């Protein structure tokens, strides 16, 4: 798995995985969810080693979920809904404070879920940005509105420094491998509703089970 993060990023590929994320009855397939994140990590890796600490954290969370998906209880880790039910029914989630299940699927996925909100906000800003927009500012705004609220000061500082070396909008669009800027904008417009729907379904599920603040 780790090696696949080094390959070339394609926005279309990420879009395809998020398209495949939802079942007919709107359950979120874990395999596709994780595949979407793997694709995004490829992009992050292509931005350079400054982003290594972020990539490392994302990869370790992906790996925790992959281990459950391939483990002895794999059948319970087909969708986010089945994972939540299984872990809650079997008291496998540290609901109030870290205890015997510090790496439950539920708390691990929650971290990626919060990052998905950042992604949604960031992509929307990119989509509506102009040629002279600064990606670092767009990224920082999206981060401050979402993930930052869950991160301690040190992480916020480190993330803020990393954002400063983000490439400009033009380079960013090129790395997406979609085509000219108009096509990137169109593709982002296609991707956003899918990402939003996956985010909202997960958010509602976690809210319903009072799990939005898992330690
Ligand atoms: C379509 C292409 C354009 C966008 C491509 C974006 C690619 C982004 C790829 C990955 C995003 C990283 C996801 C980070 C997950 C962070 C999860 C988290 O919150 N972890 C913290 C809490 O975990 P526990 O300690 O409770 O286990 C952990 O402390 C975090 C450590 C690392 C710092 C995370 C900073 C996140 C910044 C997100 C912005 C990424 C900037 C990418 C720039 C394109």
From TrEMBL:
Residues passing through the membrane, by range: none
Pfam families to which the protein is assigned, alphabetical: GLTP (PF08718)
UniProt key word Lipid biosynthesis: no
UniProt key word Lipid biosynthesis: no
Membrane topology of this protein: Peripheral membrane protein
Domain Glycolipid transfer protein span(s) in chain numbering: 29-177
Subcellular location: Cell membrane; Cytoplasm, Cytosol; Endosome membrane; Golgi apparatus, trans-Golgi network membrane
Record's GO cellular component terms: cytosol; endosome membrane; Golgi apparatus; nuclear outer membrane; plasma membrane
Gene Ontology terms, MF aspect: ceramide 1-phosphate binding; ceramide 1-phosphate transfer activity
UniProt entry keywords in alphabetical sequence: Cell membrane, Cytoplasm, Endosome, Golgi apparatus, Lipid transport, Lipid-binding, Membrane, Nucleus, Transport
Catalysis performed (reactions): N-(9Z-octadecenoyl)-sphing-4-enine-1-phosphate(in) = N-(9Z-octadecenoyl)-sphing-4-enine-1-phosphate(out); N-(hexadecanoyl)-sphing-4-enine-1-phosphate(in) = N-(hexadecanoyl)-sphing-4-enine-1-phosphate(out)
GO biological process: negative regulation of interleukin-1 beta production
UniProt similarity note: Belongs to the GLTP family.
Name this polypeptide is given: Ceramide-1-phosphate transfer protein
High-level lineage: Eukaryota, Metazoa, Chordata, Craniata, Vertebrata
């Amino acid at each position: 798995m780790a090696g696949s993060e080094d390959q070339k990023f394609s926005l279309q590929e990420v879009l395809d995985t998020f398209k495949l994320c939802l079942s007919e009855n709107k359950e979120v397939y874990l395999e596709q969810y994780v595949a979407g994140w793997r694709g995004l990590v490829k992009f992050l890796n292509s931005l350079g080693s400054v982003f290594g600490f972020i990539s490392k954290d994302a990869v370790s969370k992906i790996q925790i979920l992959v281990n459950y998906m391939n483990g002895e209880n794999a059948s319970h880790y087909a969708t986010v809904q089945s994972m939540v039910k299984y872990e809650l029914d079997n008291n496998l989630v540290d609901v109030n404070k870290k205890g015997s299940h510090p790496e439950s699927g539920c708390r691990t996925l929650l971290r990626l879920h919060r990052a998905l909100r950042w992604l949604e906000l960031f992509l929307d800003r990119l989509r509506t940005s102009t040629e002279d927009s600064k990606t670092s500012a767009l990224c920082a705004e999206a981060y401050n509105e979402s993930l930052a609220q869950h991160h301690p000061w040190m992480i916020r500082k480190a993330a803020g420094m990393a954002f400063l070396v983000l490439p400009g909008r033009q380079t960013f669009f090129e790395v997406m491998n979609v085509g000219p800027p108009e096509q990137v904008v169109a593709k982002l417009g296609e991707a956003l509703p899918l990402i939003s729907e996956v985010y909202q379904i997960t958010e509602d599920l976690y809210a319903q089970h009072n799990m939005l603040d898992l330690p």
